[in-house]
Each structure stands twice: as structure tokens, then as C-alpha cells.
Amino acid sequence: MSNAIADRLDPDRLIEQACELAGSDDFGEADGWRENLSRLVDDLVAEADLSPIGVEVAAADVILPLRNRLQITKWRKDNPAVAGQRIERPIIIIGQPRTGTTILYDLLAQDPELRAPLTWEVDHPFPVPQPATYDTDPRIAETQAQLEMSEQLIPGFMKFHPMDALVGQECVRIFAGTFCSMIFTVQYRLPNYQRWLMYEADHSPTYRYHRKFLQHLQSGVPGQWLLKTPAHLWQLTDLLAEYPDALLVQTHRDPLVVMSSTSALMCHLRRLASDNPTIPEAAEQCSEEIVLGLNRELQWFDDGAVDTGRIINVQFADFMRDPFTTIRTIYGQLGRELSPTAETLMREHLSAHPGDGGGNRYTWADTGLDAAELREKVWAYQERFDVPSEQLR
User: Fold this and answer.
1) pLDDT greater than 60 at residue 334
2) Whole-number Å distance between alpha carbons of 288 and 284
3) Which residues is 226 bridged to in the sheet?
4) Nearby residues of 14 by Cβ (< 8 Å), 6 or more positions away
């Protein structure tokens, strides 16, 4: 089986397929994407414990960003003015996973004055989206059908992490174009790739590619960017080097609850590609990453590498209790006014997507982690940002 997997996931074969789909073989800047892809594929073959369906899912997860990269590169060559477009004052949500980042992102994206990269255009960015067909493009239905297929394969996924072709997509999906992205370590068990990604990888080329992707999309439909992914928290210095005028919003919640909830989500996601994922295995990875990310942030603040004054802090409990008071506070700190139109659209979205409060989808006992040991490791973060401890389920 491993030989068959290696053959199906051979990088040269996947690259060839992407070139055929895109009608091009020009991948643009030599930013390390080829070496990163080899690392990823090596671990997919050796460590991810892929099922037969999972092999095809993994192949698709490589071919799609390759095709997109080829198409974006060709568009920039044919339209050189795109490279000169500015990305000004993007608003970027950077909180840990499972801290309200998704619902906050979805609500802010209802503001007509903000431009979020929607799922359909991130997955299918070529041809460039156009204002006249932005809400009716046939790629919307195609993307929605693909999402619904995922729900059929792993029932309940949409409750864990709601997705839709017409909602904002996370930056990690864009990062996949350099194969230096946490999207892969969430969806697959990749211990070697994960360690490289956390401790060794150079993420600056990934942020350069991210800018190119946004320039591509805004060459058709412009606007002030609203962006989001928890992965930014691990790479704040690279993020701010690429977007020095970015406006940052960080959501905060008890990191142990984050670990428990995220571990359950990761295990659920991995069922799409593997028959044998476990919550303790996901929890071991997740706890290491959360502790690393929070400690890095504190160190950057202490070293002066990141100015704490440029981050708008949002407590998860406050946001859940009174979302619109929180949103008004965010807008005030951003120097923006929450228009009646934007607030109405946000309220309509919240009414249509109330969430289910998490239910009983995860418990701390499932993780196999030592709560006292981890509480000690994250306590400095909780003290710095006044984040209360929650009772663990």
C-alpha cells in the first residue's frame, strides 16, 4: 500500500497534473515551494496513515494550490500592473483557534465596507472575480457542492466548523500555495512536517505569496481586506513585516479549553483522510503548538518586536455574552463607525447562524493531557491578557 501511496502522491506527478489543469508550467518566484512540497508529501506517505479515500483527498489538497499558483502567476505576467497594487491597513483577526475568531470574522465580513476573501474565490481564483457576477458566479455552486460532499464523508463537520462558499476563508488556505501552512497539520497527522513548520520553516515567502494572492483577487473586486487565521499568532513578526500597517484583533480564551476543543476538531477532520485518528494524538500536537504560540507572542512583546498597543484585545466570554457591544468597541478602536446597514446585516447573519454552543463534542478527559502542568505553562499569557480560567468539561 505504501508504494501505491507514494506513486499517487509523487510530487512530479502532482505537479504535472496541476500544469495540465492550468495550461501553464510557470510557478513564479522560487520561494521554496518545491522543497516544502517534498517535505509535505514525504510525511503524507510515511506518517499520515491515509485511507484509500484519504490518498485522493491528499492529492487534491496538493493539486488545487498548485493549479491556483500557476493561474495567479500567469495573470500577473499578463497584467503587470497587478504587482503594483497596494494592500492598505488590512484588518486581521489573529486569536487562538476556538476562541470566537470564526463568528467574529463572519460578522465583520457582513460590513459592505470590508472585503473578506470568500471560500469560492480562494479555492477557484481564476478567472479573476468580477463585481457584476460576484454573487452569482458558477464557481460558488461548485464550491458549495464540494463542501457538502465533505459533510457527507464526515457527518457533523459543519457543526464543528461551519463553512460556506459565500463566507470568508482563512489565510491558511492561501498559504497552501507555498506548502508552508498549518492547514496541512490540522487535517493530517504529519509529525515531521509539523516540527519543521513550527521551528525551522521560513514563513516570509509564504506571506509574500499571500500578498500576491490578495492582489490577484482585488484586481477584480477591490476593498479594505478583512483577514483571519489563528496561524498568524505563531508568525506575528513575519505578518507585520509584510503588512506593517495591519490592524490586529486578538481573541482570548482559556488555552486549556482551546486545546480540548481544537483537539476534538482536528481528530474529526482527520477522519476524512485516515481511519485511525485519535484525540490524544491530536491533543499532544495541539498543546505543544498553543504553548509555543502564546510564549512566542509574549517574548515578542517583551523584546519590543511587536507593539502591544497595535492589538485590539477581545475576551471570548465578553463577545459571546454581548457580541454587538464588543463589535462597537472594536470599531471604535479601529477608528471606524458601525453603520446601521452593517449592523443590520450582522444581526441577520447571527440570527441565521446562532451556533450550538459547542454541545458535548469534547471533554478534557478525552485529551489525556495533564491540566496542572499545562496551566503552569500558559499562566503567564493568562496573566498578561487577564484571561480567566474556565471549568474544564
Assistant:
1) yes
2) 6
3) 91
4) 37, 41, 59, 62, 63, 66
* Residue 247: strand pairing partners: 91
C-alpha cell at 248: 490586529
Q: What is the pLDDT of residue 251?
A: 98
Parallel/antiparallel/unpaired status of strands 224-228 and 91-93 = parallel
Give me Rg for the CA atoms of the chain: 20
pLDDT in tens, 160-208: 667 799 999 999 999 999 999 999 999 999 999 999 999 999 999 999 9
Q: How confident is the model at residue 360 (pLDDT cuts 50, 70, 90)?
A: low
Nearest by Cα to 40 from 64, 58, 26: 58
Cβ(286)–Cβ(263) below 8 Å:
yes
Cell numbers found for residue 256: 486549556
Residue with cell 482570548: 252
Among residues 328, 321, 337, 316, which one has the least CA distance to residue 390?
316
SS3 annotation, the chain = CHHHHHHHCCHHHHHHHHHHHHCCCCCCCCCCHHHHHHHHHHHHHHCCCECHHHHHHHHHHHHHHHHHHHHHHHHHHHCHHHHHCCCCCCEEECCCCCCCHHHHHHHHCCCCCEECCEHHHHHCCCCCCCHHHCCCCHHHHHHHHHHHHHHHHCCCHHHHCCCCCCCECCHHHHHHHHCCCHHHHHHCCCHHHHHHHHHCCCCHHHHHHHHHHHHHHHCCCCCEEEEECHHHHHHHHHHHHHCCCCEEEEEECCHHHHHHHHHHHHHHHHCCCECCCCHHHHHHHHHHHHHHHHHHHHHHHHHCCCCHHHEEEEEHHHHHHCHHHHHHHHHHHHCCCCCHHHHHHHHHHHHHCCCCCCCCCCCHHHHCCCHHHHHHHHHHHHHHHCCCCCCCC
Domain boundaries, the chain: 2-385
Contact 210, 235 (CB under 8 A): no
Under CATH, to which class is 2-385 assigned? alpha beta
pLDDT at 161: 65
Q: Residue 63 has which C-alpha cell?
A: 493539486
The crossing angle, in degrees rounded to 10, of helices 101-108 and 340-352 is: 130
